[in-house]
Amino acid sequence: MTSMTVNGRPVRFRMDPDTPLLWALRDAANLTGTKYGCGEGDCGACMVHVDGEALRSCLITIAEAEGRYITTIEGLSRDRSHPVQQAMVAEQAIQCGFCTPGIVMAAAALLDKNPAPSEAEIKAAIPNLCRCGVYPRLVRAVERAGRVKRRRERISAAPSPGISAEDAAREVPAISAPGNPDN
Hints:
- This is (2Fe-2S)-binding protein.
- The protein is an alpha/beta fold.
- It has seven helices and six strands, in the order ββαβββααααααβ.
- It has helices spanning 21-28, 73-76, 83-90, 100-113, 119-125, 135-149, 165-168, and strands at 2-6, 9-14, 47-50, 53-56, 69-71, 175-176.
């Protein structure tokens, strides 16, 4: 059994230790905000924080995540009030939305380390692919979120509709792979 902390709560996965973290989060923990894009670490749709660092969850196994602190998009902020989430909405940097969770996680990790990044630093820290091409608005959104973090600006955008963040980030007890008799 593999144990870690996901969105501030202890979780034990009864799955093959070589299972990518992406699939444990999506299929077993029902945290579907983390998206499957390419499965090879190229697109960044599956980006999560592992001990505060933005990592592609398709490239890390649950064995490698043992004992670590994982934050998914559902756990970034319970009410979707994180500055990056708010700035992405305010700057209209969301098109289809598929890549958005991974971009938000990469941007949030960047701003935790550097709340005033340059355009070049933003582009280097957010390697995510966006088929809709929101890149200019994305840079503006990250710059704006940095200003919010530094308390130089406020954003009053409303949280997105849909499933409540609290429901999405609920505590999940020990989880087995589908079809496992230990369920």
